[in-house]
Every structure is written in C-alpha cells, then in structure tokens.
Amino acid sequence: MNLLHWLFPFGTVSADEGRFTTLRAEAILKTTHKLEQRIAERFPDSGLLGVCKEFHQLAIRSQELAHRLQRPIWPVRMAAIMAATFLIGIVIWAFSQLVQHFHFDKSGIFSLLQTTESAINELIFLGLALFSLLGLEMRLKRHSALKALHRLRSIAHVVDMHQLTKDPAFLLSKHKIAATESSPQRTLTRQEIMRYLDYCSEMLALNAKIAALFAQNTDDSVILSGVNDLELLVQGLSAKIWQKIMILDLSAE
Fold this sequence. Notes:
mainly alpha
C-alpha cells in the first residue's frame, strides 16, 4: 500500500474498472444517430424525424458540455485563489499592525477590545466573501448544467406531444367513431403506430441517458436533483406510451 492510497483510500479507481459502470457518451450518440436513421427510413415525412434530428444535435452539444464541466475553469479558479490570497493577506497585515501598536496598559486593553469587536465583524464578512469566491466555479458549472437539462426537459415534452394523437381507441373502434373537421389525420396502421410509439419511447430513454452524463462525474446536489427530476419525468411519459403499445399488442391476440 503506497502513501497516496493510504491518504486517499476512496479516491482512486483502477484502470480495469468502469467498463460497465460508466456511461460512454460515444455509444449514446451512436444510438441516437441510429434512431434518427430508423425513423427516416420508416417515417420520412413525419414530424418525429425533425424532432429526432434536433435531439441528436442537442445530445452532441450536451455531451460536449458534460465533458467540459469535468475540467476546472482555470481563469475563474486562479482569480478566486488570487482574491482569497489577497483577503487573507489583508487579515494577516491587520493582525500584525494590531500586535505592533498594542500596549499593555489600560488604554491599550480598551483599544484592543474595541478593535477585536470590529475585527470579528470584518472577519465574518471576509469569510462570506471568501466562501463566495471559492464557490464561483461550482456555481458557473451548475448554471450551465441546469440550462442543458432544461433543454432536454423541453424536448422530452415535445416528444410527448407527438404521441398524443396516436390513440389506440380510434384504431380499435374500426372507424366507428366519426371524424370531424378538426380531427387529426390518422393514416397509420396498428403496426406502424406501435413502431412510432416505440421510437418515441426510445428517444425519451436516450434523453435520460444524456442527462445522466451530467450526474456521472459530479456530487453537486442541485445537478443531481435536476437529473433525477428529468428521469422521473421521462419515466412517466414513457409509461403512458407503453400503455398504448400494450393495448395495441393485446388487441392483435
């Protein structure tokens, strides 16, 4: 056991670990591109194809952002370190001046008490400023990650909008329900609707996997909560889709 492992027993991961415990962004992007091709081959004129194309581009940008967020923002980090060093230097200088001009007499002790009270208040404000500076990098990363998660959440709702009109009840009624002028066009067969809904479900699942890339290498509770909320949203939307798929599948028996 080397010294580094003794000091940080939980901080290292061996080279042979992580093959099936780490999400690989390249595999996710390859799957999204493959899904786009499958939709283009089966539903070339559908709005779902346009959604998938935009989702694939969003997945690429999100993956790149998640990768960048793993690295430190050196300009911000160096500025925070320099500012923190400056604040600490001011405290040390003020303390040295106090010691240098202190006199062990009645007036000196009274002056020390007054100075100590003011110094405590100043130290509190300096501590808050130091904490804010040191957390600036994390707040910038958090802001970028939450914006990306918001875009993923928005496109998940767009996918859900595209499956709303794929109603099994109308198909199973064998056109006994009369269509109105405002009724959506329903030209897909049962098998085509099932395939369409399956594509929607796959896109939602990939959406959650892209979001998980932001949580994979961070312990920020706000980012983790945002990813968890998006996964719960996707799970709920997928459940509605699979209810329709099961109804259509059972109707064929």
